Amino acid sequence: MTFARVELERLATLASLDIGREDLERLGGELSRILDFVRQLETAATHETEPLTHPLELNQPLRFDAVAETVDRERYQRDAPRTESGYYLVPRVIE
Amino acid sequence: MKSRHVRALIEADRIHPGQVARHYRERIAAFNSRLNAFITVLDQEPRARPADAGRCLLAGLPIAHKDIFVTRDVRTTCGSRMLGGFVPPYDAGVVERLADQGCVLLGKTNMDEFAMGSSNETSYFGPVRNPWDLERVPGGSSGGSAAAVAAGLIPVATGTDTGGSIRQPAALCGVTGLKPTYGRVSRYGMIAFASSLDQAGILARSAEDAAWVLRAMAGHDPRDSTSVNRPVPDYVAALAQGIRGCRIGVLENCFDTGLNPEVGERIRDALRVMERLGAKLCDIRLPHLALSVPAYYVLAPAECSSNLARYDGVRFGHRAQDAQDLPDLYRRSRSEGFGAEVKRRILIGTYVLSHGYYDAYYLQAQRVRRLIREDFLHALETVDLLAGPTTPTPAFRLGEKTEDPLTMYLNDIYTIGVNLAGLPALSVPAGLVGGLPVGLHLIAGDFNEALMLAAAHAFQGATEWHDLVPPGFEESAS
Description:
The complex is a heterodimer of chains A (95) and B (478). With 95 residues, chain A is mainly α. Chain A contains three helices and two strands. Chain A has a domain at 5-43. Chain A has helices spanning 5-14, 21-38, 73-76; strands at 83-84, 87-88. The mean pLDDT of chain A is 90. Chain B is an alpha/beta fold and 478 residues long. Chain B has a domain at 6-240 and 424-477: Amidase signature (AS) domain (Amidase signature (AS) enzymes). In chain B, 36% of the residues lie in helices and 13% in strands. Chain B has 15 helices and eleven strands. Chain B has helices at 6-15, 19-35, 93-100, 143-150, 167-173, 207-217, 235-238, 261-276, 292-307, 326-337, 340-353, 358-382, 405-409, 416-421, 449-462, and strands at 38-41, 62-66, 104-109, 156-161, 176-179, 199-204, 247-251, 280-284, 385-389, 425-433, 436-444. In chain B, 63% of the residues are buried. At the A-B interface, helix 1 and helix 2 of A face helix 9, helix 10, helix 11, helix 12 and helix 13 of B.
């Protein structure tokens, strides 16, 4: 298969990635080869097989709805690129 | 320092506290520039050791963590520009447990970016070099940990294994690499790549050393909902059981096309040693094993595209300057912060999860995943362990496979099935081909790490491959 440029741009938008014009062709070729390769999965007879989402198929445990730890906002925000008065700063979203 | 093995090092630290860590700090200072195995080297311990060192399992043992485990107040990069300045506010479960048992953290090891790679060449911090040949790759993604242990810069290091990322570099660097059963070791604070496949493990000089560390590292962690609550056996005590009467199924699929014939010979030699030690060999074929790489390259990218959605330039991680608006901030921060392989996998994952393709790719891969797990479980009803080569070839040259992602992916052809099935596996050194190490792959049933480690220990009692040191990195050379 070949990846149409428009398809690749749609994927990049969904994934919030910019792809430079110079990379579009190379990346399209790489993704096409990878997807052609994984298409051999079609050869397996799986009509009676349930999907396996997780290797151990355990039930997810529930925990008590109790306070376990308190968040140290100041410490956690130390890694944030931009904050002010305890808030995360982003570009203006409302004009 | 006479012995580099864990038991002797703990004893040495008891007699002369601090001397063992000093020795390894000196080796890191002398050799790391040749290997680039560490992203961060710690001059002093970031926190005080436990008060009652006498009761710790690993008191005084120097350790390095793969830079995928978050460490409180110590930079954790995951090999990415995205997290180049990230200083976590907490410790991963593995980090905490090993510190509680007395381990001394000496540094954070280099790795493929977000653990996506098989050669350590996707690291933002530059490739790691293989101590056996500095022009060759150490494997990946735990390449820094493998190279550091092989070169004697650290006695043990942690790693993570999503498709072979502990066992493949262990094989290429000539060390012992253990991937425990999915759920055996906490994933809390281990930066997520593909959550249903990722598992923390160990790179060490021997199966005995790995058993010492696994005993301290394994166990339930309520902060990881996939962590399994079952008792941790005494892996060290279990080493003595040997392999007399152990039934080993030889994975004949792995000896078909694609295997370097000399690697195949070393593995057959190793299996003959196992037989001499009392194991009973038989041939096994897993009908769907050939589909493990294609299934993996649907499932792992799908999970990665979801896990890596959190990197948005807002709460932590790289942020692009002068963004026009919020979507622009997301796009540019992610595009600048992620490298080529990570972007490739996010795009594949986005594609296979998108409307119209989900059933054909993602659900079909999950169905094949069940077939693969059932193949393994069926085989393990008739044998105790499965064995084969860890990799098709010894270490390849830097740059040799970077142009073609698919060729690189096929390097993990023998290891990936184990992650899809969730089983424990390890790689032990089994000889040299052209002066480069070769690994024997052993696979056990769910939670049967003890038997696998005992088999590897018996093998290492009868061979000396695990004691070989790469030329130029001998203990006297520091």
